[in-house]
Write the structure tokens for this entry.
Amino acid sequence: MTTTTTPSTHRATVAIGDEQTARRVADLLTENFFEGGAAISAFEGPQGRWDITVHFADAPDQGAVRDLVGLAAGEEIGQAIQFDTVEAKDWVATALEGLVPVHAGRFVVHGRHDRARVAPNRLRIEIEAALAFGTGHHGTTRGCLLLLDMVLKGASPRRVLDLGTGTGVLAIAAARALRRKVLASDIDPSSTRVAAENARLNGMGGLVETIKASGFSAPAFTRRGPFDLVLANILANPLRRMATPMVRHLAPGALVILSGLLPAQAAAVIADYRARGLILRRHIQLEGWSSLLMGKVG
């Protein structure tokens, strides 16, 4: 990887209270600082706070950055941005440092900069880490991949759905392991574009179909279902709201992997799905997050 060392690195950091707003901010910054102008990373903490860090190739117009963030997150967040300058270094590497390959069973999620570090016999998923939404560097994504690996050791689901696909990590993982088509949906059109591109870059473009959809409203769910496996790494409240429509789209004996839950939220989600005929098969906790494997009775 070519280095880009500058006399100094210019950095902006801000904390944002919810994922949707953080996505808007990251998307807007990406659109306005392109072709190497900035490296943007966004990471979620256990309390739902998102920390966004931007490393700039050149000293930014601080007022313009505040205005951009203010458009997406409100003036108060824009004014809360902290700017500083750090010593000379490769600013792209700075944005990627710490994003080492993530191992989850047979799966390995890695960035382009780490291709050489991944054994060729693993199920590799390459996701560029300029934006960290769904790169695998999060307990929820890793939890889902571990449960998916466990499921695929004993089953070979034919119809698979990745609900709330984000960058497409889970859809790509399922398509690569099964060599079957996977439907990947997201409410955010930018996420579906990113997921489609990531699928193509991973050689899964012909197997991963991406659609923009809210819940289960799109005709594709009926056309491609009923599903034998659903992967849903979202948040607790949306998962609870979607329990009834999800069950309607499940095949007999289907398996469902749910994540994006704090441990304190898991019991309520389990109860909602149990009331609709699903039983808990496995519950794992990683990095302060819960991931559930549930199975439909019959």
Observations:
- The chain has two domains: 9-96, 133-296.
- The mean pLDDT is 84.
- The first helix runs from residue 19 to 32.
- The longest strand covers residues 250-261.
